[in-house]
Structures are given as structure tokens and as C-alpha cells.
Amino acid sequence: MTTLFDTVNTSIATLPNRIVMAPMTRARSDGDGLASASMATYYAQRAGAGLIVSEGIWPSRLGQSNPMTPGLTTEAQVRSWRQVTSAVHAAGGRIVAQIQHAGRLSHPDTTGQQPVGPSAVAARDVMMFTPAGPQPAPAPRALTTDEAADEAASFGPAARAAIEAGFDGVEVHGANGYLVSQFLASNANLRTDRYGGSVEARTRFAVEAVAAAVEAVGAERVGIRLSPGAGIQDAVDTDVTELYTTLLTRLSALGLAYVHLEEGTDEDTLLRLRDVWPGTLVMNPSVPTATTPAGLDDAERWLGHGADLISFGRAFIANPELVERLRTGSPLAVADDALYYMGGDDGYITYPTSGGPAGLTA
């Protein structure tokens, strides 16, 4: 019987366990999008994960979502990330860079530019973090056909920069209402050109973005994260099974390292997608509850359904040594969510490690 603590071979690396640290925005870079020494400490503390997926990193200034989030567009940014990847590797870990283009989930106060999207449709009931505080997501400017191709192509240089920065691979962020997800979503994508309308056309941007990364660094180093049917940040999919079956079928021809699915729709649909996807599957189960800390029951269920790896998000924030705590059944600390995005080291690198006190126990 497969367990979370078994080794697994992937094209990125042989992983010592099947636990993935999911990408989580923590807003600890500086105003120039540079990774910091504290970020190096944060990720190195969590190097016991079989694989770490970094927070979302923007591939162009236009693609930045929130303030104090990092980029991979300048040599200074690449250099700043080397301290992070070196620290993770020195601690025995492996880390991939999640490339995240915000699309319409941005604000002029953050980037100095009007956000862009598949169509000029604002995300409903979504508040953006900005330097002036929370503000409603503005209406984006619709990308022209040529501009859409250019934004998809921007994932290539970002992937190359990630490898130059020492990352072991890259994950294209195709989930949670960001630009790739916006092109998939029928309520955000009202286009009538080759990037919109039919299911095939709505998947084009995602395939081109992934293909750009593959051309830059090789398919064996590229994964993608998707959130079928989740509707997060007002990116609403219709025809979920057809849409994601088409997308995964097209992506399977590229020979990617993995697909990372969020459990945002019914299990039967996700099991059909598992049948469609022939390669390594990372599953991000449903949100943990008080009776199932860190989603362990769901993790075991998805391993039984054929997932190869299981990703955990918030459980890693207050439990840097989450893998060992899960292995030994130790109590899990609970993070102070007021400190998720507040900047500084408190609630970031201050949670105990190496057998220290567990802090706020569940």
C-alpha cells in the first residue's frame, strides 16, 4: 500500500516522500520583486517536503498581482532567488518555481498599468491588495490576439530565468482565477478569435504558455497547476469535464513532469481526469478540518485513487517540519492567519523547528 512517506521517481528528481508543499503567497519580497534572506530561511526550514512549489512569481511586471510579491524578470531578481534555492538544496530539499501571471487580478496602484485579461470583464466581488489597501478588482483591458500570444510566450523566459536561479523546475499557474485560468473560464473569456469560444480555443492559451516553458527548459522540468470547476476569484468554468479533458489530452502530448490538481469539483469528475492524464499527478485535497488535521484522510484517499503526490498548503506555515510531524503523529501547530501577508519575520520564520514547542496546537 502506497503511503505519504514512500519515495517516488519523477522527471524532476527522486523524491524522498510524496508530500508536496503547495504554493502560497506570503508577500515577503521587496518593492523591486527581489527574494529576501528571510525567504531563503522560510523555504529551507520546509525542505523536508518531497518537493516545494514556490509562491507565485510574476513573469512580467504586467503579470504582478499583489504588492511585495517576487518576480523573475531581471538579473537582480534571478540573483536574489539563488540564495533561496541554494538554501533549500543545502538543507536537502528540492524546489520548483511557480510562474503566475495575474491577468485581471491586479491593480494600477501595484503595477502602474491597467490589468489585462482575455476580455474586458472585471472579477466580481474580488478585492485586490494594493499599496493603498484593499480595493475592488478593476476592469482589465482585453488583450489583442497578438498580445495574448506574447503573454503566453512570456512563460518561456520566466522558466529559463527560474532554472538560472537554481530552481529544479517550474510550475505554470493555471488555477485560481489568474490569467491562464481566466482564458479557460467562460465568464472571463468572451473572445471570438482563436483564444475564445470553443473548448478547444479556450485551452489554447494554457497550452501555449506551457509549451513556451517546455521549449525553454524541457518538458521534464515543467508542471502545471489547475483548479477544475473551483470558480475561485470569479473564474467560472463551464463544461468542466469536456474542458479539462481536452486540456489534459493536449498537454499529455508535451510529456510534462506533472499535473497538480486542486479538489475544487466533484470526485467523479476528478477521477475521470486522472484517467485522462497518463503522467505524474499531484493532488491538493480539500481544506482540512478539525477532525482531519492537514487533510490526512483525504491524502490517503487520493493516494488510493492513483495520485502520486499530495500537496499541503497552510499546514506547512506553522509546521516547518510537517513531514516529520505527520510521520510521528506529533501535534500540529496552528498558524496565526493575521500574519499571513503582514511582512516581516513574525509568523513567517518564527514557528519552531527541530523539536521545539509546538506553539498553538490544534
Automatic annotation (TrEMBL):
Species assigned in the record: Phycicoccus avicenniae
Domain (NADH:flavin oxidoreductase/NADH oxidase N-terminal) ranges: 4-331
Gene3D superfamilies: Aldolase class I
Protein origin, superkingdom: Bacteria
InterPro entries documented for this protein: Aldolase_TIM (IPR013785), OxRdtase_FMN_N (IPR001155), Oye-like (IPR045247)
PANTHER family: NADH OXIDOREDUCTASE-RELATED (PTHR22893), NADPH DEHYDROGENASE 2-RELATED (PTHR22893:SF91)
SUPFAM superfamilies according to UniProt: FMN-linked oxidoreductases
MF term (GO), any: oxidoreductase activity
Protein name: Alkene reductase
